[in-house]
Amino acid sequence: MDYLKQVVCEDRLGIGAELEADMQRVIDTYECEWKRTIGDPQALRRFRHFVNSDRPDNRVLFVDERGQPRPARPAERAMIEAAV
To answer: What global pTM score does this model have?
Structure first.
């Protein structure tokens, strides 16, 4: 346990600066893939129901949850279809 404390807390192996530099490089180069995709019309075109058609899939039903749409669960889907 003492050795572990020396390695982690006291940087006995002398790799602390290298690990900090690696972590800073990750932080500096981070990019949200979803934000980049939403901002790129060419990439956004790939997110559609059918590759060979611009028509939506009418079998996919959505419900609102906390102010956001999400696909309906089977029980919710049955209720929606029964109401139509």
So the answer is: 0.44
